[in-house]
Amino acid sequence: MPGLQNWRAISLTVTVLLTANFAASAQDVLIRDAKVFDVTSGDVRTLDVLAEDGRFTKIEESIEAAPEGVKVIDADGKALLPGLIDVHTHWTGMNGATRASIAVDLLEAGVTTATDFHSSPEAFEDMRAYHAGIVSPHVFYAARMSVPYGHGTAWTDERVTKTVFSAREADAAVEDILAFKPDAIKVFADGWRYGSGANLSSINLDAFSAIVGVAHEAGLPVFSHTVTVEGGKQAARAGVDGIVHALQDRTADEELVELMTENGVYYSPTLTVYEPFEDEMAEMGPAKAAIVMRRQQFSRANMSAFLDAGVKVAMGTDQGIDNNPFGEADLREMELMVDFGLTPSEALTAATLHSAELLGLSDDRGSIEVGKRADFILVAGEPWKDISELRSLDRVFLDGREVVADAKLSVDQGAVMPDARPAGRMIDDFENDALTSTGACRGYDVDRNHPRSRLVRNTVERIEGGMALHVSADLTLKEDPFAFVVLPLSPAGFLPVDAARFDGVRLDVRGQGPIKMKIGGGPSEAESAFETTKNWKTVELPFEGFAGEPEAGPVDLAALHWLSIGRHDEPGTDFWFELDNVEFYKSAE
Known about the structure:
Blueprint lengths: L3 H15 L1 H4 L5 E9 L6 E9 L2 E6 L10 E4 L4 E4 L1 E3 L12 H9 L3 E6 L7 H9 L5 E9 L14 E3 L3 H12 L5 E5 L16 H13 L4 E4 L3 H10 L3 E2 L10 H9 L3 E2 L10 H7 L1 H24 L18 H12 L4 H16 L16 E4 L13 E6 L2 E5 L2 E2 L11 E2 L3 E3 L14 E4 L7 E8 L5 E8 L7 E7 L8 E2 L5 E8 L1 E9 L2 E9 L4 E6 L4 E2 L13 E7 L5 E12 L4
Parallel strand pairs: 1-4, 1-5, 6-7, 7-8, 8-9, 8-10, 10-11, 11-12, 12-13, 18-24
Antiparallel strand pairs: 1-2, 2-3, 5-14, 14-15, 15-16, 16-17, 19-31, 20-23, 21-22, 22-31, 23-30, 25-28, 25-31, 26-27, 26-30, 27-29
C-alpha cells in the first residue's frame, strides 16, 4: 500500500481527537484468566491482559497486582479476541435504522471498527463529531467514485458518488474529494451489481489507475466494487488495495490469481449479501434461481483458488443493503467464510488483522498486542474451533471501556440524531457558484435507476443585479419521471436546523408552469405547489400549506434537513425555472 504510513499517522491523530469525549470516561481494566487468541499465529494461551488509557499495556501469564483504580474482571476462561472489523458497511436508514441504532447493533455483534460506504464526503466532518458523542464503533469513511451510468449512480447525485470517465477527470475528482478528508476511496468499477448481468457502465483502466494513483499518493487505500473475473484483473492492474465483493461470473483463471497475489490485493467477498434463501429462491422462479446457484458455485470455487494461492481475505458484509441486517450480518459472514473454505482460525484473522491491514490500521488495532488500541471482545466459547460460538459474545470493550455486557449495550447511548442548530433566515441567494448560504453543496433529486432524468443547474446574472440559479430538466421516458434541485440546510443535510420560529419559505422565481417545493425533516417530507411564468415574482409558501403522506407523520420544523424545488411531469418533457433569494420568513416582520 504505497504511502499508507503517512496516512496512518494522520488517521490515528484524527481518531484520538474524535474519541476524546468518549475516552475521557474510559475505565482502565485488567482481564484475568482469559483464553487469548493470537490472530498472528492462531495460538491460544491463558493470559492476563491489562489495558490503560485505551491501550494494551501488559499481556502476561500472571499480572500479580492490579494498578490502583483499575477495574478487574475475571474472564473465567472466556475467549479474548480483537474486536471485529467490517470493511464493507452501508450506514443506511434500512428498516428505520439510525446511526445510533446501527452503532449499537454493530457493537452487540462485537464489531469495533466499521467502514461507511454510503455517505456524502461533505458530511464527514459533522458525522465524525456526532459519532464522538455517542457510543459507536470507530467509523472509517470512504468516498465513492463511479463512471457515468455506472453502479452507485442510480439513486444519488455527485455529492455522494463522483463520476469520472477519463484519467484527467479522475485526477481532478480525487483532488476535490481530498478536501473532505476521507479515510479511503471506493470505486464502483463493474457495471454488474451482484452477478446477475452486465447492465451498467464499467470503468476504464486509465481512469481507474488515475484514481488509485492520486489516492495512494495521499495515503488512502482504494477499494473496488468488482464482481467479475475480468473486473478483478482490471482492479489488480490498477493497484487497488482490496476487492470488496465476490467474483462470481465465472471461475477465476491463473492470470487473475497471479495479479492478485503479485499486487497484494485483499479479497472481501461479502457472502451474506448473496446468500440464497429458500423463500426468495421460490419467488424468483427456476430460471433466475439457477443463475443464483451457479453464481454461488463460482464464488465457492474462486474463494478456494484464492486461499490456495495465499490471497489475504478480509471481512465485509455489505450490511445495510438488501435487508442485510446490521450486526447479524457480521456473525453470519464469519460462518459463511468457514462454509466457503476458511478454517475458523483463518476467519477470525480475516475479520481482525487482515481487515485492519486492508484499512491501513494494523499498527493501531486488529490484534492483541502491547501498544495497540484496546478494542476487544470476550466470548463464552472457543470460536477458533467453532466459528458459531462467536454468537456467545459476552462483553465488548472499545478503547478499553466496557460498552457491552451480557451481550447488550451496557452504557447510555447518545442522541439518536444530532442536535438541531438555529436556522438562519437566508437559505440560498446563489451568490456563491457552488455552495448555498448554509455552506452546503447544492444537489439534485431525480427518478431512480437508469435511464434517469437529467437536471442541469448553473448560477446566472440577473438583469436587476446579483446572481440567480437557472435550472433545466429533461425528463426520461419512464413512469412518473421527476427532477428537483436540492438545497441542503447543512452540508449534505446531515445536521438538522430548527426553523420553527419561521412561518414559511419565501423565494423569487420565474419559470415555465407549475413547480413544487418539498421540505424534509426526519423520515417525513411535505410539499407545496405554486405557478411560475417567465416574469420574476416573489412567492411565499407558509408551512401550514405544506402537505405530506399521513402515515409518515408531520414534518418536524424544529429538525429540517433540506428543501427541494422541481416537479413531476410527463415522460419525455422538459422544463426550466430560475430561483433567487430562497429564505425563511416571518409574517410579522
